[in-house]
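quick one, 565 residues, struct below
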Amino acid sequence: MKRFSIATLLASLFVAIMIPLGVFLVFLVAQLQYNEKVVLERRTLRDAVAISKAIEPVIGEMSTVLTLVASARELQTGDLEEFHRRIQFELRTTGNYIIAADKNGQQLLNTRVEYDSDLGVISDMDGLRNALQANNMQISNVFLGKVSQKWVFNVLKPIEVDNPSDVRVVITTKNADDLEPVFDVMVLPPLWSAVVIDETGRVIASADPEKFKPGDLIQLPGKTNHGDMLQKAGLRTVDVSLAKEQLIGFSRIDGTNWKSLVFGPVRSAQSSILATWYWLVIGVTVFAAVLAAILYVFSRNLNISIRKIASMARDVGAGEIVSPIDTRIAELDFVAKTLSGASFDRSQKEDTIRVVMQELSHRTKNLIAVVLSMVRQTSKRARTTEAMTASITERIMGLGHSIDLLTAKDWGAVKLSDLIEKQLASFGKVGRTVVLEGEDIFLRPEAVQHLGMALHELATNTFKYGALSKPTGKVNISWETYDRVTDDEDDPRSEKMLRLTWREIGGPPASEPEQKGFGTQILNRYMESAFAGQTKLVYADDGFSWVLEGPFAKFSGEKRPASAY
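---
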């Protein structure tokens, strides 16, 4: 059989650790990058559609105004001066202006200026011809207004030719920059832009007026042609250059030939993932260097120490009395001391190992029972394998958080506040979105596992459906102790009780689910059984609340030092 040195084995161990670790980390970050890109695509398309939906009411309001104006009594009687005075007054705060023009485009009145002002032909002659030819309402492209000297757009409506005046078209016009407030609520990644363009590709409004001004001809990444975006809404991915991918989301605005566009470099929206890649490379490199140095030093010291112990063992085999040697490795020192007093230590160590194995067996059985219960209950209600897998994974991870706390405390008592912070770390920040009220108590290990499962279910539900699903939502967790006197008249006794309350504030109204799932069983029957107490679930318009009451002795575990085996 071929034999290897310790240095060779440790080098092989180093390679065996680093290669799978590196592959796994690369796969993990790549998967995160892919998932983030999917989220980015959805958000980009959603933002483009949201802009369109925000502008459509503006066009609709202008169309409504124009319909009402076209039926004005003054137009029917030919009293254009009175028509100008009344319409100018009624629309003074709306940002809409009315123009009346004849069939040749000559302006007969314009509410931007006084009635008797000297007016020329309208700037939007193409829109005039289209409206007269189609004989219905038209939405113009953006153009530079002669009177306002601003970039504006029109809604044009032809009117009946039998009125006493020469008016053949009435027009409502609005400044293009009046549409900029639709971008106020948008939060774009760095180097990203959002614009509204007309049929010719000119900018009507944008989220960054300094970068894209009204009237500018839009230049999309990779020379993408906006005219090719024919469907109602969609996405385009453009490879501008190597490793520089651009994403474009677009949506057509109903009733117009306009489009809303949201676009920018994918890399800038994935800066967190790129930073993760950067620190991953550095971290893995540093980790590999440190690990290699440690393994080298350990291999050298281990080789020297083993040779000393081998010499000591030969002396023992020769019947000599030996004293323990000192090495730089504590474990080898222990071996040396064991050789010196093996008969004395053997019994003590065997007893210690037996206790450790019994404790480990007991804890393992408990954990297996809990996990099996999760699997059985979740499988009864899960509709798909994927849903079952996700649900079980989340619950086991929640149980793992409790086990982490217990392990850190050597399976001793754990503070209630520490358990809450551990279980809610991924959902809300204690002190900001999660408020704790109560004098801290130490929980026994069994209570940590049981209560941790309930806190995980509550945190998951509030994050998905409850208070923490809203930016203004909060969760108040309070607990208190009180004395309860038994009902036994012959032997009345006072028993210390604990009341724990979970209350959600500032979230959506809570409604009782039609089907009770495994989570409800945990919060109800499981908690009542585990703590010999009572639970109460309240679904109210001002939020969900849950109360658990039980004997204090079922919760409390006296703080004790770490176990030593």
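The chain has 13 helices and 18 strands.
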